[in-house]
Design a protein that fits this description.
41% of the residues lie in helices and 14% in strands. The protein has 399 residues and is α/β, with parallel strands linked by helices. The chain has 2 domains: 148 residues, Aspartate Aminotransferase, domain 1 (Alpha-Beta Complex), CATH 3.90.1150.10; 237 residues, Type I PLP-dependent aspartate aminotransferase-like (Major domain) (Aspartate Aminotransferase, domain 2, 3-Layer(aba) Sandwich), CATH 3.40.640.
Length: 399
């Protein structure tokens, strides 16, 4: 049979980090011990009260269709939970439930972006932003981050130049950022609010890591006057509650936009799994002690990893207050090993040590002017003893 794939498929990207898992798995099959710093998954169990709520819902017959926007009890629970933490008011009309947080990206863009519209998005950043913008025919404008002694900051001059030249209609903002582990200070967040309000832009605020925080107080851009009415929050249960495989998320924002997004739900998946929505209610209304234990475990891993990496000559990593990622400048080691590319560096290290990580190139196209070399370590899927063992072999190879 002869057939031709639709041209738009060529514009659809992927999460290239999956290729890292594949190469690590191939080595593991040959008997190599792998230290999985590439995984953004969480190797901790979902709190038991969430599992019990799901099982009860199944026993109670919550196994049929639900409204496309989700069941009302969960939508109300999410409205209260998100609003209270951010100092704003939401109601059920502002909430739509999804099978994961990721679907919110494409659905939001379908609803608010016309073909040819310019959209600002972070790079390095979650690669699905760029993929979805281009798939739906938008002009993808990647804005960079500048490394500082205290972490990464948005390149404001670049954003302002994009705004003047391309008149973007949407800005995607991922505070508590993957892969950088970066967070905006008040000045940076207020600047984003000012530029989006002055230029009448909508904002997709990816807040997947809002509650993955070890110190300080999390803040959302919707708390700034004038931003709630132009911002859609992407929320996911995956990170905070160790529910990555459950596939449960929500979009929280202007009702008119969410009504349109619910229509896409009807056309795509019909609805999010019924009984899993009841697990979501238990997650945000139930006992928070298991969540605190998850954060304590992640903090311990972070501290061991940061201290170990900083003991390697040529590496200096700030301690992030949020996410479970470290974005590490390895330029000196890269040059010392005579690496031909970041992929060459990754594979040499993996084959010699079993230490598996992602590189900067797994988080968007390398942009003009980039000279430093970075890799990303995730510590959500690896235990402290494995971190220590992996660091020992890594240090020996890199030194």
């Amino acid at each position: 049979m002869n057939y031709t794939l639709a041209k738009r498929i060529s514009r659809l990207g992927t999460e290239t980090a999956y290729a890292v898992s594949e190469s690590a798995s191939k080595l593991a099959m040959k008997g190599k011990k792998i230290y999985p710093f590439h995984l953004g998954d969480i190797n901790l169990p979902t709190p038991f009260h969430i599992i019990e709520a799901m099982n009860k819902a199944i026993k109670d017959g919550k196994t049929g269709y639900t409204p496309a926007a989700g069941i009302l009890p969960l939508r109300q629970a999410v409205a209260d939970y998100i609003g209270q933490a951010r100092g704003v008011k939401y109601n059920v009309d502002n909430v739509v439930i999804h099978p994961g947080g990721k679907p919110v990206i494409g659905k939001f863009l379908q609803v608010v972006m016309e073909e040819g519209d310019a959209v600002l998005y972070p790079n390095p950043g979650y690669p699905i932003y760029e993929s979805q913008i281009e798939y739906f025919g938008g002009l993808a404008l990647p804005y960079q981050y500048i490394p500082t002694k205290t972490g990464f900051k948005i390149d404001r001059e670049q954003v302002e130049n994009y705004v003047k030249k391309h008149k973007p209609t949407v800005l995607i903002y991922n505070n508590y950022q993957n892969p950088l582990g970066a967070e905006s200070d008040d000045d940076e967040m207020n600047w984003i609010a000012k530029i989006t309000i002055e230029n009448n832009m909508l904002v997709l605020s990816d807040e997947a890591y809002f509650d993955v925080r070890y110190s300080g107080q999390a803040k959302s851009i919707v708390s700034i006057p004038g931003m709630q009415e132009r911002t859609m929050i992407l929320h996911t249960f995956s990170k905070t509650f160790a529910m990555t495989g459950w596939r449960l998320g929500a979009s929280i924002g202007p009702a008119e936009i969410n009504n349109a997004i619910a229509k896409i739900n009807t056309n795509d998946e019909a609805c999010t799994t019924h009984f899993i929505q009841y697990a979501g209610i238990a997650a945000i209304q139930g006992d928070r002690e298991p969540t605190r234990q998850i954060m304590n475990t992640l903090r311990d891993r972070r501290d061991v990893l940061v201290n170990g990496l900083n003991s390697i000559p040529g590496i200096s990593v700030p301690v992030p207050n949020t996410t479970f990622y470290l974005f590490v400048d390895i330029t000196a080691i890269y040059n010392k090993l005579g690496s031909k590319s970041l992929e060459d560096f990754r594979m040499k290290t993996l084959e010699a040590t079993g230490v598996s990580f992602c590189t900067r190139e797994h988080f968007g196209k390398t942009l003009p002017g980039e000279t430093r070399k970075f890799i990303r370590f995730a510590y959500s899927g690896i235990n402290v003893d494995q971190i220590q063992e992996g660091l020992a072999v890594l240090k020996k190879f890199w030194m």
